[in-house]
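Hi F.,

I've been meaning to write this up properly since the lab meeting, where we talked about keeping a consistent format for the predictions we share between groups. The idea is simple: the sequence comes first, exactly as it goes in, then the structure tokens exactly as they come out, then a line or two of notes. No screenshots and no reformatting. I'm using this chain as the first example so we have something concrete to point to.
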Amino acid sequence: MGRFATGWVTIALAAVTGIAGAQTPLRFHVGVDRSRILELEEPMTKVAITTPAIADVSVLSPTSLLVNGKSAGVTSLLVFGRSRPARAFDLVVQPGPLVEPGAPPPDVEAHGVQVQRGDKITVQVFVRDRARAWLELGAGRPPAEATKR
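Output, unedited:
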């Protein structure tokens, strides 16, 4: 086999090995116009996002990313480190709340967190999904008695 053919075999083998050894992307959910922090086990050296119109990221520290949902959809995020292959994430950006913050679906325990910014108070409402991770349902105005305090 000549040098040219050997080179093509090497490239083809590397491509097949890369595909076969590729990891399944981890899913990371965030809402439209919402932010979540993605914590990493090791410091990153580079990040890449496929569709910045769907989601964007800001580096908070070498091991923390702030993920901002911009429009509904799914995009890829790759996080590169020194000691292992890039970690792949599917960033799933979900549309706004599907239910009113004050009316969670039946058999779901909602948890509200009051957020005060100056003289304005809002309530962020969360529920747990089947994997027991917190999902944000949205924000709303608190009940009238909470604003009278």
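Notes:
The first strand starts at residue 26 and ends at 31.
Confidence is low (pLDDT under 50) at residues 4-21, 145-149.

If this format works for you, I'll send the rest the same way.

G.
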